[in-house]
C-alpha cells in the first residue's frame, strides 16, 4: 500500500503524524510526506521520504494565521455576522474562520476561479498521478489534498483533533438552514471550490470531511462532529537532541516553561508577560528550564539565577524530569505532559476580547493561543492542573499559584488520570490493520 501524508508545512503539523508514518513503514507500506519545500529538511530528519509540492521559487513560504488577507477575512467576518453564531460558539467559530481558514489560503486562493494559479496544488496532483497513492492522509488545513486524492481515485482521510473544521461545517449547515436565515456561502467550500472545479471534482460531504477521520484526541477533548471516526493515540514526538549534562540528575523540583514554537513563528504576540512570569519563579526553590527565543524574551531585562534558557529542547526528554510544566495550551505540549504524568499550568488571558475578530479586523495575533481554552478545560477537567491567567500578570499571585500546584498531591493524582485517558486509544501500530482493511476491503 502506498500512503501519502499531506501536511501543512510547520513542525507542529509534522511531528504528530510521524509515529503513524513509521508504523505504516514498519508494516511494510510505502510512505511519502508531501508539502511545501520549506518543511522538507525537517521531514527527512525524521527518516521519512519527502516530495515538495512545488519548486521553492514557485511560491514563498506560507504565513499561516499571520497572513494579512484583509479582504478575505472581512468577507468571512460578514458571513459570520449573517450566520448569527451563538455567543457560546463564537470562540470556536473564530478559531476556524480567522485562524485555520487563512492558513488554507496560502495554497488555495479564497473565492478564486478555476484558472487562478495554484502551483502547490498543481504539483501535488502531478505527483499523485505519477506515484499513484492508495491512501492520502491529509491535514485539515490542506483540504486541496482531498481534491488531489479524488483526482487519482485514492482513498483519503483527515488527520485532525480537535476537529474545528468538521465542527464548523456542521455548525454552518445548522445555522444556514434555520427558517428565515439569509442565503450565505460556506467559506470552506469557497476555499476548496476553485481547485475542485479545475480538476472536475464534486464538492460534497466526503470531500470536505474525508472518507473518514483519524483523530488522536481522547473523546473528552473532541468537538462533536458527524463523521466516521478512527481514534488513535497521540505519541509525543519531536526532533531530538543529544541529552545535555544538565538534564540529569535532578537535584530539586524542576519546572518547564514552554510558550510555543508555532506561537512565536506565526503570531505577532505581546510577550511582556514573560518578564513577570520569570520574576515570579525566581524566588522559589526550583530549577526552571524555559524554552524561549529572542522574540519571546524581548522584554526580559533580567534572567533569574534559577532559570536556564534554551531556544529549543525536546519536551519528551525534558518533561520526565519535571514536576510541573507551564505552557501556552498547545495540543502537542499538553499531550506530551499528559503522557509523562506531569501536572500543568495552562497560560491563558481570560479578559481576551474576540468581538472585533468577527468582522475580520482581528487576526488572532494576540498572546492568547487559540487552543488554550480547549486544552485548559481538558487539563482542569481531569484535575491535572490549573489555568494561569496572565491577563494582568502579578509576581506574587503567579508565585503563590505555582508553589501551591507543585505541592498539591491531588493535582498529581489528576495527572495520572489524564495519562490513563490518553492511553485508552489504540496506538498507531494498532490502527494500521484497520487502515489496510478500509483501503482494500476484503
DSSP summary, beta strand count: 13
CATH class of the largest domain: Alpha Beta
What structural class do the secondary elements suggest? alpha/beta
Intertermini distance: 14 Å
* Helicity range: 40-55%
* Uncertain residue ranges: 354-365
Main sheet: strand order: 3-2-1-4-5-6-7
Commentary on this structure:
By secondary structure, this protein is of the alpha/beta class. The chain has two domains: 2-234 and 426-439, 3-Layer(aba) Sandwich (Rossmann fold), CATH 3.40.50; 254-422, 3-Layer(aba) Sandwich (Rossmann fold), CATH 3.40.50. The protein is 40% helix and 13% strand. It is built from 18 helices and 13 strands. It has helices spanning 11-14, 18-26, 40-44, 70-83, 90-105, 119-131, 144-151, 164-176, 187-198, 205-209, 261-266, 273-282, 315-318, 331-339, 372-381, 395-407, 409-422, 428-439; strands at residues 2-6, 30-35, 50-52, 135-138, 155-159, 212-215, 229-231, 254-258, 287-291, 307-310, 324-327, 344-348, 385-389. It has a seven-stranded parallel sheet. β4 (135-138), α7 (144-151) and β5 form a beta-alpha-beta unit. It is globular, with a radius of gyration of 22 Å.
Amino acid at each position: 500500500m502506498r500512503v501519502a501524508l499531506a501536511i501543512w508545512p510547520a513542525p507542529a503539523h509534522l511531528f504528530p503524524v510521524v509515529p503513524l508514518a513509521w508504523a505504516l513503514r514498519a508494516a511494510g507500506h510505502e510512505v511519502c510526506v508531501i508539502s511545501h519545500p520549506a518543511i522538507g529538511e525537517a521531514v527527512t530528519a525524521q527518516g521519512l521520504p519527502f516530495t515538495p509540492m512545488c519548486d521553492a521559487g514557485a511560491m514563498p513560504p506560507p504565513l499561516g494565521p499571520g497572513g494579512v488577507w484583509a479582504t478575505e477575512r472581512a468577507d468571512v467576518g460578514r458571513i459570520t455576522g449573517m450566520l448569527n453564531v451563538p455567543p457560546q460558539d463564537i470562540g470556536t467559530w473564530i478559531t476556524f474562520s480567522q485562524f485555520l481558514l487563512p492558513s488554507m489560503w496560502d495554497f488555495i486562493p479564497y473565492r478564486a476561479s478555476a484558472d487562478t494559479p495554484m502551483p502547490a496544488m498543481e504539483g501535488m496532483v502531478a505527483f499523485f498521478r505519477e506515484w499513484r497513492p492508495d491512501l492520502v492522509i491529509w491535514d485539515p488545513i490542506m483540504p486541496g489534498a482531498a481534491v488531489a486524492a479524488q483526482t487519482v481515485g485514492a482513498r483519503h482521510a483527515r488527520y485532525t483533533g480537535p476537529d474545528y473544521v468538521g465542527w464548523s461545517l456542521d455548525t454552518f449547515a445548522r445555522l444556514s438552514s434555520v427558517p428565515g436565515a439569509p442565503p450565505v456561502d460556506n467559506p470552506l467550500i469557497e476555499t476548496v471550490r476553485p481547485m475542485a472545479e479545475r480538476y472536475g471534482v464534486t464538492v460534497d460531504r466526503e470531500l470536505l470531511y474525508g472518507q473518514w477521520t483519524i483523530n488522536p484526541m481522547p473523546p473528552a477533548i473532541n468537538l462533536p462532529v458527524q463523521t466516521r471516526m478512527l481514534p488513535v493515540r497521540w505519541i509525543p514526538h519531536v526532533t531530538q537532541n543529544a541529552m545535555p549534562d544538565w538534564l540529569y540528575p535532578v537535584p530539586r523540583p524542576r519546572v518547564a516553561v514552554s510558550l510555543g514554537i508555532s506561537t512565536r513563528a506565526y503570531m505577532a504576540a505581546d510577550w511582556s508577560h514573560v518578564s513577570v512570569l520569570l520574576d515570579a519563579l525566581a524566588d522559589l526553590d526550583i530549577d526552571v528550564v524555559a524554552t524561549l527565543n529572542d522574540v519571546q524574551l524581548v522584554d526580559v531585562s533580567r534572567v533569574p539565577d534559577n532559570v536556564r534558557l534554551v531556544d529549543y529542547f525536546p519536551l519528551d526528554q525534558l518533561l520526565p524530569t519535571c514536576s510541573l510544566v507551564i505552557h501556552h495550551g498547545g495540543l502537542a505540549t499538553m499531550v506530551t505532559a499528559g503522557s509523562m504524568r506531569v501536572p500543568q499550568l495552562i497560560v491563558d488571558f481570560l479578559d481576551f476580547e474576540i468581538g472585533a475578530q468577527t468582522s475580520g479586523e482581528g487576526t488572532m495575533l494576540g498572546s492568547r493561543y487559540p487552543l488554550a481554552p480547549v486544552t485548559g478545560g481538558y487539563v482542569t477537567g481531569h484535575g491535572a492542573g490549573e489555568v494561569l491567567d496572565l491577563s494582568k500578570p502579578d509576581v506574587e499571585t503567579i508565585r503563590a499559584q505555582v508553589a501551591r500546584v507543585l505541592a498539591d498531591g491531588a493535582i498529581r493524582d489528576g495527572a495520572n488520570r489524564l495519562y490513563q485517558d490518553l492511553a485508552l486509544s489504540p496506538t498507531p501500530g494498532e490502527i494500521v490493520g484497520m487502515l489496510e482493511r478500509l483501503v482494500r476491503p476484503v
